[in-house]
Amino acid sequence: MSIGWFPGHMASARKKAAETLAKIDVVVEVMDARLPGASSNPMIEALRRHRQRPCLKVLNKADTADPEATAAWMRFLVDARAKGDTVQAVALSCRKASDVARVPRLAQALAPHRDNPLKPLRLMVMGIPNVGKSTLINALAKRRIANVGDEPAITKSQQRIDVSDQLVLFDTPGLLWPLIAHPSDGLMLAASHAVGINAYIDEEVATFLGETLIRRYPRLLAARYKCDPTGLGGPELIDAIAQRRGFVVKGGRPDREKAAITLLNDYRSGALGRVSLETPASRAEMLAAAVSAQPLEDDPARAPPGR
Ligand code: G4P
C-alpha cells in the first residue's frame, strides 16, 4: 500500500517554515516514540541542516512505547550525530508537566548564548501530524494555544507564542512528505493515526499491525484477546479477535472490519500495553531490504560499468 498524503496547506507551510528557521535558535523535532523512524520527516532534517540549526529530537508518547525499544532509539539518535552537529535527544511524555519542563533546559544547552530577556531562546516546534506538537506547546505555554486533536493536521496556521521574556515558541503546521518512501512507513503512520483516515483501509492497516504484534508482542495480544497468537498471520488474528468478541455480520461470518478497528483502537489508546512498531535494528533491516529490491539501473553504485 502506498499512502500519498500532502494536503495543500503543507506546501506553503514548508516555505514558511524555511523562512522562520532563519529567525530561530533551536528546532524541536517531535516524533512518535513508538515509530521514531517512520514519524521523523526527512524534510525537517534537510531544512534545519540547510540553516545549520541545532535540534532537540523529542521522542514523545514514550509512556505508550516499549521502554527497551526507546532506549535503543535514544542510543541510535545520539550515536548518529554527524561530526560537529549539535543534536540532542530526549524521550518523554508531553502529557507530564515534569517531562515537559526538561525541554527548555535541553534546548537552552544547544544555544547557550540565548539566555536573557534581550536574547530570549527561540524554539521552533516541528513534526508530522499527531505526534503531540500542540500538546507540547500548550504545556510549555501553560495555557491552551494550539488545538489538540486526534484528527491529523489540525494545527493549520503558523504562530508565534511569547511564553516568557526568556522563551519564544514558533508553531508550524504538521509536515508530512508527499510520498511515503516505504510502504511499511505508511502502514505504521496509519496505524498510529498520523495520516488522515481517508488515506487508508482499516483492515489493511490492522493486518500489518497484527503481524508486527504477533512477531514482537505475542504475550500482550494473548492477554488482551485471550487467544494464542502463535503461528497466526495478520488476517487470522483479526478473525480470532472477531470470534472472541462476538463480532459477526449477517450470515454468521466474522465482522473483520469491526475487529480491525478494535485492534487499531486498542493500539492507539495504549490498551494493548507499551508497544513500539520499530527499532533501529528493524528499520535498518527494512532499509537494506528496500535497497536490495531496487532494480540495478536505479542504483548508480551497482549499475553495470559504462552507465
Ligand atoms: P499534533 O499537534 O502534533 O498534531 O498532536 P496533538 O498535540 O494534537 O496530539 C495528538 C494526540 O496525541 C492527542 O490525543 C494528544 O493528547 C496525544 N498525546 C500527545 N502527547 C502525548 C503523550 O506524551 N502521551 C500520550 N499517550 N498521548 C499524547 P487525543 O486523544 O486526540 O486528544 P485528547 O483526548 O488527549 O485531548
Explained architecture:
With 307 residues, the chain is of the alpha/beta class. The protein has two domains: 8-171, 3-Layer(aba) Sandwich (Rossmann fold); 183-276, Conserved Hypothetical Protein Ylqf, Chain: A, domain 2 (Orthogonal Bundle). The chain is 42% helix and 11% strand. It has helices at 8-21, 42-50, 67-79, 97-100, 102-110, 133-141, 183-191, 202-216, 218-225, 234-245, 256-269, 280-293; strands at residues 26-32, 55-60, 87-91, 121-126, 159-164, 167-171. Helix 2 links the parallel strand 1 and strand 2 (55-60). Helix 7 crosses helix 8 and helix 8 (202-216) crosses helix 10 (234-245). It starts with 7 loop residues before the first helix and ends in a 14-residue tail after the last helix. The model is unreliable at 302-307 (pLDDT under 50). The structure holds guanosine-5',3'-tetraphosphate. Guanosine-5',3'-tetraphosphate is lined by residues 60-61, 63-64, 93-95, 127, 129-135, 148-150, 154-155, 174.
